[in-house]
Design brief:
mainly alpha, 3 helices
Length: 53
């Protein structure tokens, strides 16, 4: 269960792609999507753990 995600699945993928391409830093992505930097950091960590990035 837990909380409803602040970012949609599309926004999550968009943010991850921009970070991976070097277009945005994690802090910049957080500002763009109006979330805390820790939210982006967790998203990147989760993606890295599940996909070995």
């Amino acid at each position: 269960m837990g909380r409803k995600p602040k970012l949609s699945a599309f926004q999550q993928q968009e943010a991850l792609a921009a970070i991976a391409a070097g277009e945005l830093t994690q802090s910049e992505a957080a500002r763009r999507y109006g979330v805390a930097p820790s939210a982006i950091s967790r998203l990147v960590a989760k993606e890295s753990a599940t996909h070995g990035l």
